[in-house]
Write a structure and sequence with these properties.
CATH class of the largest domain: Alpha Beta
Number of helices: 9
Strand content: 5-15%
Helix content: 55-70%
Enzyme class: transferase
Largest sheet: 5 strands, mixed
InterPro entries: HATPase_C_sf, HATPase_dom, His_kinase_dom, HisK_dim/P_dom, HisK_dim/P_sf, Sensor_HK_Regulatory, Sig_transdc_His_kin-like_C
Order of helices and strands: HHHHHEHEEHHEEHEE
Protein name: histidine kinase
Distance between the termini: 48 Å
Radius of gyration: 34 Å
Shape: elongated
CATH topology of the largest domain: Heat Shock Protein 90
Organism: Halonotius roseus
Number of strands: 7
GO molecular function: phosphorelay sensor kinase activity
Length: 375
Amino acid sequence: MRRQLGIGVIAGIGVATAQLTVYGIISGAYDGFVGLLTDGVLTLLFSALVIGAGYWAQTTDRPDWDIVRLAAWCLAGSIAIGGFELLTALSLYAAGAAEIELLRALTTAAARGAALGIGFGLFDIERRRTKRRGAELERQVDRLEEFASVVSHDLRSPLTVAKGNMELIGDNDAVDEELIAHIEFAHDRMSEIIEDSLALARGGNEVTDPEPVDLSEIATQAWQTVGGDDETLTVDTELRLDADPERLLRLLENLFRNAIEHGAEGDEGDDGDPIAAGLPDDYGDDEPADSVLDGLSITVGRLSEGEGFYVADNGDGIPEEEREDIFEAGVSSSGTGSGLGLAIVRRIAQAHGWTVSVTDADGGGARFEFRIDPE
């Protein structure tokens, strides 16, 4: 009912002003070509605009209250502009002007005011729509973070109990050590998924308060966190950039782990067995096996074209047809990954306003490029 009433008001004003304008043209109320053009033709165009807005209101799926607000703006504009013109028209009428001239002035003012009101109304409902979308997005983010926190809390407790009991079982010489290793690996994978899920949920929030950070220091810290040695990583830049230090640290950690995991894939004889792959070497110790780091080289440097940095390795690289999919959550070509690492990398980059792409490194491996000025 409210919607139809709003549509009726908009269309009614448009049709009424158009009819009165046509009547004025036929009655000769518009003097000369200029008067016909500025008052007659333009008034018809304004009326057509209002009628078009009524048709749009009829076909759009916007909420009923948006249409009511649009009609209110249209009516308010018509009354406001028409009211000012009425004062002038009455003074002219008192001075002896013809009634048709009074009608012409009011019709022109009403049509222009209605069109102006439509413009303000469309701006108003679009502003409100954007505000509603922002509020809904914030609610979704809050729900996602709440979900991730609840899941992580509910999973961490039984995992802690399970790992404690595994340590007790490990003291029993009669238990198969390989079986224990597989169970511990499963526990580590669940812990990794918990941490990655939290990072994925929170990493995409826009960085609103970045601070200047030294890329070299953050890269070195990230490499130490993943347990790398001093020979594998090369930092070839003194770039300073505005970023969230914690999230940039997580971004680099994930890229380094990705390089290490895919370095493990080159080992022969593992038959897809994540335990034989060498990651991690000792469960409960996050440092990668020495065999994984043998021959592996990772470089962090500054882009030669544009502002930004890159992380490159000398592994097997990423096939061109897979380069878009690898940033999707759940996509992993490694038997030891959670499939969330590179998705987190892209979320963190987007939160900073950066773009990330992957290409071939000079050494034949993968090169991840981050552009700080994507424009």
